[in-house]
Amino acid sequence: MAGLIASLTREVADFPQPGVQFKDLTPVFADAAAMAAVTDALAGFAAGVDLVAGIDSRGFLAAAAVADRLGTGVLAIRKGGKLPPPVHAVEYNLEYGNAVLEIPADGIDFRDRRVVIIDDVLATGGTLAAAAGLLTQVGARVTVAAVVLELTGLGGRETVAPLQVHSLCRM
Length: 171
What we know:
Blueprint: H1 2-8, E1 10-13, E2 21-24, H2 26-30, H3 32-45, E3 51-55, H4 58-70, E4 73-79, E5 87-94, E6 97-104, E7 114-122, H5 126-137, E8 141-150, H6 156-160, E9 165-170
Parallel strand pairs: 3-4, 3-7, 7-8, 8-9
Antiparallel strand pairs: 1-2, 4-6, 5-6
């Protein structure tokens, strides 16, 4: 699995700012066999959850596929300003700035729902930690997180501890 993901990952220098080596998983998601393998592997980590949450925006792709595979609902954890009010929101720090994540405040009962969070890349862990904190704040039980690619040198796993994180490929 790791070799397949690594072979299809596109590296983009100096994006979104100078000095950042962006790992683009779009080619992984665009390859039918790779997407099926990623979906199966991520779904294996999420057994027993009630809801699959994907982080804006590439996390949506994998989360929707996993939710379909598991027969659960999917939640889009959006960047600030993308959802109609009212919303629950959290502000957090990124490796290259600040950001806001939001989820709907109406229409979804999060209390005691077992949730897996899916994202494409775990870097410094700020986004994943913010998403987990936001879901916990509204009463959900975040049981596990799973990512396609983990950038091990950036300390993301430590940032989100004690949340259990599974990664399909580590670089």
